[in-house]
Write a structure and sequence with these properties.
Layout lengths: L1 H13 L14 H6 L1 H22 L3 H15 L3 H14 L4 H9 L5 H22 L4 H21 L14 H28 L6 H24 L4 H22 L3
Helix pairs in contact: 3-4, 3-8, 3-9, 4-7, 5-6, 5-7, 5-11, 7-11, 8-9, 8-10, 8-11, 9-10, 10-11
């Protein structure tokens, strides 16, 4: 029952969907992070269903494409974009470490964050709407799974910044158990994506290539951000998630061209 509670804690915290079971257990917070890939599976499933629905009603392809694109932002309640913007404000300020950390936890929206989110959305539109037009279902399913998997792994393994909500940390056993669950759920997501790819006539190994690319992209973003900001935080996790998803859809666009 505690595991079920942790899953719905993750659902209620990371998804902008009505949560069918509202209960918070602070002792299960590490498992809540372990269920982030499951949140990605829910988001990926719904993203695929939304895409199929838009195809069914027969909207013009560009309207269908941009309606599909925006779904992934709406379903998370723009939660991760907030962290992306805060992190960009801090990173692009080019101030000393203490000032960068102060900017990171400041809720004020700065010019750098606005410019960064505009560029992020612009790149999404160029890749998704103009290049892809209609993304393959295996990509729509897997991208939210891997981005959230990596966010969970970074939060569970890296030292938090002093003001981070995760600063109290978890015991070694809690981290280990949550990481095992994270990896297990991520593998399940990859296998499902491979099945979707095979059933749709695509090469079954494409989800593996996508996963490797997203892991590298997420890792590069985390190395840079934590090096500049002195540790890990929820905002930095959101930053790496947004960047890895953008690189993920770019990888999908490149894979289907060859």
């Amino acid at each position: 029952m505690k595991i079920v509670t942790a899953f719905f804690m993750a659902w209620g915290y990371f998804l902008a969907l009505p949560c069918p079971y509202k209960k918070w257990d602070e002792h299960q917070r590490h498992y809540m992070l372990g269920f982030l890939p499951a949140v990605g599976i829910v988001a990926g499933d719904l993203w695929c269903v939304w895409s199929l629905f838009l195809q069914y009603i027969g909207l013009p392809i560009y309207i269908e494409s941009i309606a599909t694109l925006t779904f992934i932002f709406f379903i998370s309640g723009f939660f991760h974009l907030d962290g992306f913007m805060d992190t960009c404000d801090a990173l692009l300020s080019r101030r000393d470490m203490a000032e960068r950390q102060r900017i990171l936890k400041d809720s004020t929206v700065g010019a750098f964050s606005v410019i960064s989110v505009v560029l992020l959305i612009a790149w999404w539109i160029v890749i998704f709407v103009i290049s892809l037009k209609r993304a393959p279902l295996w990509g729509l399913f897997l991208i939210p799974v891997i981005s959230r998997t990596m966010s969970a792994i970074w939060v569970l393994t890296l030292k938090p910044i002093g003001h981070s909500q995760y600063r109290d940390g978890f015991t070694r056993a809690q981290r280990k158990n949550a990481l095992i669950m994270t990896v297990f759920l991520a593998i399940a997501g990859i296998v499902i994506a491979m099945i979707i790819a095979a059933l749709s006539g695509a090469a079954f190994y494409l989800p593996v290539v996508l996963t490797i690319g997203m892991v590298i992209a997420s890792g590069a973003c985390i190395v840079h951000a934590t090096g500049q900001l002195g540790g890990m935080s929820g905002d930095i996790s959101g930053f790496s998630l947004c960047m890895s998803e953008l690189l993920g859809i770019l990888i999908v666009a490149l894979l289907i061209q060859f």
